[in-house]
Automatic annotation (TrEMBL):
Segments forming domain Protein kinase: 81-373
Protein name in the entry: non-specific serine/threonine protein kinase
Organism: Hevea brasiliensis (Para rubber tree)
Family annotation (PROSITE patterns): PROTEIN_KINASE_DOM, PROTEIN_KINASE_ST
Protein's cellular compartments: Cell membrane
A Gene Ontology biological process term: defense response
Record-level Gene Ontology MF annotations: ATP binding; protein serine/threonine kinase activity
Compositionally biased spans, kind Basic residues: 401-422
Signal peptide range: none
Region feature Disordered, mapped onto this chain: 18-37, 380-426
PANTHER family xrefs: OS01G0588500 PROTEIN-RELATED (PTHR45621)
Keyword Mitochondrion annotated: no
Keyword Cell membrane: yes
């Protein structure tokens, strides 16, 4: 069995075969494709009419290193999509863990993988699947999840990713009955995710992620974050255009207010969403939580007024941290979140500025030594010295793999537990927005979120 390297023509011929049978041939002239002197990334619009593609498009993806898998191979990799390998499920469909070795796919490094299967009756469809292949097939960055390959066989649509053993940030941050994510890990995750967004925004052909949220940030064993799920991503405005007009899609609590109201999408829309996730990292609260009092249900609206006041900030910091965080770092991170959550898009910082602000925060070490524990002194003890040791901040705290004082067990392939009441519903139209405003909601709420774990 040999490894089949992806070519754009081969992929499209199989993916669009059924569509070509259903649609009558177009009488419009074919779009001319001129040779590019330098690399030009392919957009979804380039694929709207597969018959217009030339060999130049397949050449432009020659370095993508995507591999084509058969459905039979993926069944072997996942042991027939067995329940024991089930990882989670979202709007796209179920995700299973698998393992690639030389026997199944010669030429590929032996490694664990996550296989995502498109549910034909789910919230997403072929267009989102193809968008994911287009973006992740061409974009490579340490903070973007790696797409290894895909399967496009008859009606079956599957994606094969690198396996991320710690799952999503949402799972790590909000799960119950487990050790809290330590402060240094939270800052490491915020910085890495910011770098991923900055890369997208500053690419030669900018990309707007459009669905930045905790469930789409995946973590490896060292808590290195990687952005996943590019099904809603859009190419940014070009030339003199200031925005991209599109359907309002995303997730309640994360989407920028101006985007919801107008459908005008910009890179600053992603910056707002980043501010919400940064706020989740600070407070330990979900972006939307209907179980809380009404005025506290929308995290950004409730917390933003308190972010610039040090005294009030202490009240909203995640109690599960038990005070084990840098006060200076928390104040700077809160001030940054305040800027990102501005209702005026032009007042929000760029993601490159966000990265510069977050970079030094991961090294702040003014963290208390831990909860005070009183022991009865003996005659040989000096209680004053003991108290002094426990009240002085530690100066030489080693930060290895994002840990300070709490141990975190590895969670390889654990099944996710869903708490539907706390999820943030997805936004799908401006009509839903108007209806929910009449019902007293801040943002539209029509569908379940698209959450998965790779």
């Amino acid at each position: 069995m040999t490894v089949e390297k992806v070519t754009w023509i081969s992929m499209l011929s199989s993916c669009f075969k059924s569509q070509e049978k259903e649609k009558p041939s177009s009488s419009k002239p074919k779009k001319e494709v001129t040779k590019q002197t330098s690399f030009q990334r392919i957009s979804l619009s380039d694929l709207s009419n597969p018959s217009s593609l030339s060999e130049d498009l397949s050449i432009s993806l020659a370095g993508s290193n995507l591999h084509v898998f058969t459905l039979a191979e993926l069944k072997v990799i996942t042991q027939g999509f067995s329940s024991s390998n089930f990882i989670g499920e979202g709007g796209f469909g179920p995700v299973h863990k698998g393992f690639i070795d030389d026997k199944v796919k010669p030429g590929l490094e032996a490694q664990p993988v996550a296989v995502k299967l498109l549910d034909l009756e789910g919230l997403q469809g072929h267009r989102e699947w193809l968008t994911e292949v287009i973006f992740l097939g061409q974009l490579r960055h340490p903070h973007l999840v790696k797409l290894i390959g895909y399967c496009c066989e008859e009606e079956h649509r599957l994606l094969v990713y690198e396996y991320m053993p710690r799952g999503s940030l949402e799972n790590q941050l909000f799960r119950r009955y487990s050790a809290s994510l330590p402060w240094s890990s939270r800052m490491k995750i915020a910085l890495g995710a910011a770098k991923g967004l900055a890369f997208l925004h500053e690419s030669e052909k900018p990309v707007i992620y459009r669905d930045f949220k905790a469930s789409n940030i995946l973590l490896d064993s060292d808590y290195t974050p990687k952005l996943s799920d590019f099904g809603l991503a859009k190419d940014g405005p070009e030339g003199s255009d200031t925005h991209v007009s599109t359907r309002v899609m995303g997730t309640q609590g994360y989407a920028a207010p101006e985007y919801i109201m107008t459908g005008h999408l910009t890179a600053r829309s992603d910056v707002y969403s980043f501010g919400v996730v940064l706020l989740e990292l600070l407070t330990g609260r979900r972006s939307v939580d209907k179980s809380r009092p009404q005025r506290e249900q929308n995290l950004a609206e409730w917390a933003r007024p308190m972010l610039n006041e040090a005294r009030k900030l202490g009240r909203i910091m995640d109690p599960r941290l038990e005070g084990q965080y840098s006060e200076t770092g928390a104040r700077k991170a809160a001030a940054l979140a305040y800027q990102c959550l501005s209702h005026r898009p032009k007042q929000r910082p760029t993601m490159s500025t966000v990265v510069k602000i977050l970079e030094p925060l991961k090294d702040f070490d003014d963290i208390p030594c831990g909860p005070f524990v009183y022991t009865v002194p003996t005659e040989a003890d000096n209680p004053k010295e003991d108290v002094k040791k426990c009240t002085e901040p530690k100066k030489d705290v080693k930060k290895e793999n994002g840990h300070h004082h709490q141990k975190h067990p590895l969670h390889h392939g654990h099944r996710r537990h869903h708490h539907k009441s706390a999820r943030s519903p997805a936004i799908h139209s401006e009509t839903a927005l108007c209806q929910n405003h009449r019902n007293g909601f801040d943002f539209p709420c029509t569908q379940k979120p698209r959450e998965h774990r790779n």
